[in-house]
Structures are given as structure tokens and as C-alpha cells.
Amino acid sequence: MSDVILLDCWASPFCMRVKIALEEKGIKYENRAEDLFGGKSELLLTSNPIYGKVPVLLHNGKPLCESSIIVGYIDETWASPPLLPSCPYGRAQAKFWADFIDKKLFDAGGNIWKTKGEAQAVAVKDFIEILKQLEGGLGDKDYFGGDSFGFVDIIAIAIISWFNAFERFGNFKVEDHTPKFSAWIKRCLQRETVAKIIPDPEKVYEFVLLLKKMNGIE
Amino acid sequence: MSDVILLDCWASPFCMRVKIALEEKGIKYENRAEDLFGGKSELLLTSNPIYGKVPVLLHNGKPLCESSIIVGYIDETWASPPLLPSCPYGRAQAKFWADFIDKKLFDAGGNIWKTKGEAQAVAVKDFIEILKQLEGGLGDKDYFGGDSFGFVDIIAIAIISWFNAFERFGNFKVEDHTPKFSAWIKRCLQRETVAKIIPDPEKVYEFVLLLKKMNGIE
């Protein structure tokens, strides 16, 4: 048995976070795709009894749940290259933005493809407002932590994999509203560890189409 | 100017977390009470522009926001006594339960006092279910981290200050459903740093009564 196993779903941005972090650290791992529609594996249900959700990282047989916590664990377990800043204040700042992204970004995007008409217009407006706040956190830096790609970049860029779907269903363009954030997206997507993991935007769009149908959303 | 300043509200369990952590570490700080109903201070709004919420901890003039992140910062900045375990796996486990509490517990309690009738019965049932899950995380240990009071205990015990209000509005008793968790509550409340910070349950009940009136909830 591999000492690092990821219970994965290709379309989950939360799984992508863990995969990008593992790539950054150069850790070899066994990827086990979960069939979320066909029934979850016994290993997933016993490893994550509270939520029953991917990603779960098993390290030497011990399960870790919740993507931001897993990425933090990866950073503490395999030291190089560091993803979080070394000073407590920088670490707290990084965790603040990661927490902001966790609380807001993916759900706000979900509100776009789950609605239509006036409700969707509100959802698009809310989503752009969140991106502007996030752009404020990025400021004029190349990456959220400064000059190098790190923790917050991983937490955020994984969700960008769904932006094409959000934009098409909401009929808007992120780059029309947040130029600095959009430049940061392009910068991250050129990175080998990110490019390797982030799936084709069209495949994600088709996945969201499928989700809409399954949930009876026209 | 004091080098540690807390922007505080006496009734906020999130502020209590920060105060208990500071007491545990023996850190002297200046407490500035915010008048949340009368208008927030300029310092609060500029220190926490994203949420505009207490608690904010200012350390040497630099602001920190979000209570769980602040408690983590306090633990990293003032090493003794440690609040989080030293091994990465133990830290990840602690963060998992802190995150679970953050996502679930206070909002579930809010659903009790904000509703009545059938909706309230469902809210009480949901709340007890969350407590049972949390009790599972505690297991047979004295504290969430094992033998000593630590990070998860601080995150959870602060919210216990509102339990009297939840119980009275919902007409139930926590100890009837979760005996081990209730024993843990009693153990924590005997601790000097906790007893000093947690307010009189009756005062909190009256505060929640006031909140109900202000929000037009009968």
C-alpha cells in the first residue's frame, strides 16, 4: 500500500488543491477516483465519517479531511518548498484569505449556475464583489504571499477551474471586472504544477451541465 | 499604546475565545469594548474592512481577524503553554474539529432561538446531532487534545456560554443527550482562565432576548 493515497474526484476544486500541493512538494501518491454518483467507497465513508466527502488524504493509513487543512498538513509534513510564510503574522494573513475563499467563492459561483433571471443577476453581482475583495488582498503582488506561489494561491486557483462555467452560465467575464486578479490567474495557470492538475474548462462546463440536469435546474 | 489590544464585545463567544487564549498564555492586553449597536469604531472598520466584526486583535498595531485564526496566531507567537499539538497530524485533527465547530455549532444554536414550533423542534434535533458528533471527537479523553486543555477546547467552550439560552428557548437539556460532552463542559468551566472570561449565563440569556426583540422575533 502506498503511504500517500488520495481519495479523489477529478472535477472537485477541493481535490485539485491537494493535488497541486502534492505536486509542489514533489510527493508521489496513489490516486483513487471515487465514483460519487455511483456510490462512495467504504474507505471514504470510514475515513471521513462526519462529511463523507472527497478529498481525503491517507498518510501512512491515517486519514485527513477538509482540503485547506490537508494542504496545511502537507506543508508542515514536507517542508520544501514552503507554502505558508514563516512568520506568524504572515501565516495568519494567509489563513484569513484562505478562509475567506472557503467561505465565499465556490458557493457564490454555485449561486450563478443554480439560478436564472433576476436571482442570477444578483448572484453575478455578488460573485464579482467577492472577486474584487480578493483582488484587494492580492494587491500589486505577483502572488498572494508576495513573490512566490504559495498557500493562498493553491486554495484560490483550484476554484478558478470552474470560472469558465460560472462565466458562461452567468454571461459575464471575470477579466472585465478584476484585471489584476485575472493577470494572477494567467500567471498561476502557466505554472507546471497547476497546469498539470487543472482540467480542461470545457470538461468542467459539461460536468456542471450534468449537475444542473441531475438537480432538475433548467 | 499597549502592544496587545482586543476590540471586544462581552457577549461574543468569538471574542471569548481570544480572551481565554490570552489568559492561558498570561498575556496582558488592553480591552476596548465595541458598541455594536451604537456604531462601530473607526479602528474596527479599518482593521477588519472585509467583515467589520469583532474580535480584532491588534499586536504592535497590526490587525488580526477571525477568532480561530487569532487563537492560532496567539499560540504561534507566545509558545508557552502550547495550545495545539506539536505533531502535524495532531494539529490537523485539532483544526478539523475547530473548523467543524466554526461551521456548525453557533449557527445551529441560532436556529433554535430564531424559530418556534415545528421549525424549532427540527433546530433542536439538529443541534443535538451536532453535539453528538462533537462528543464523538472528544471520545473518552478529558480534553479534545488529550490530557490537557488546548485549542479545540477554547474554540468550543466559548460557545457554551450561549447554551443556557439555547436550552431555555428550545426547552431541552444538553446533558440529557451528551453526558461525556457535558462532563467536559463542567471540567472546562472549573478552569480559572475559562471561569474568568465566560459571562453569567443569565446575562447572555437576556442579551439573546434583546436580540430577538431587535430582530422582531416573538
TrEMBL record, chains A, B:
<dbReference type="InterPro" id="IPR036282">
    <property type="entry name" value="Glutathione-S-Trfase_C_sf"/>
</dbReference>
<dbReference type="GO" id="GO:0004364">
    <property type="term" value="F:glutathione transferase activity"/>
</dbReference>
<dbReference type="GO" id="GO:0005737">
    <property type="term" value="C:cytoplasm"/>
</dbReference>
<dbReference type="Pfam" id="PF00043">
    <property type="entry name" value="GST_C"/>
</dbReference>
<dbReference type="InterPro" id="IPR045074">
    <property type="entry name" value="GST_C_Tau"/>
</dbReference>
<protein>
    <recommendedName>
        <fullName>glutathione transferase</fullName>
        <ecNumber>2.5.1.18</ecNumber>
    </recommendedName>
</protein>
<dbReference type="InterPro" id="IPR040079">
    <property type="entry name" value="Glutathione_S-Trfase"/>
</dbReference>
<comment type="similarity">
    <text>Belongs to the GST superfamily.</text>
</comment>
<keyword id="KW-0808">Transferase</keyword>
<dbReference type="InterPro" id="IPR036249">
    <property type="entry name" value="Thioredoxin-like_sf"/>
</dbReference>
<dbReference type="Pfam" id="PF02798">
    <property type="entry name" value="GST_N"/>
</dbReference>
<dbReference type="GO" id="GO:0006749">
    <property type="term" value="P:glutathione metabolic process"/>
</dbReference>
<dbReference type="InterPro" id="IPR004045">
    <property type="entry name" value="Glutathione_S-Trfase_N"/>
</dbReference>
<dbReference type="InterPro" id="IPR010987">
    <property type="entry name" value="Glutathione-S-Trfase_C-like"/>
</dbReference>
<dbReference type="InterPro" id="IPR004046">
    <property type="entry name" value="GST_C"/>
</dbReference>
<dbReference type="InterPro" id="IPR045073">
    <property type="entry name" value="Omega/Tau-like"/>
</dbReference>
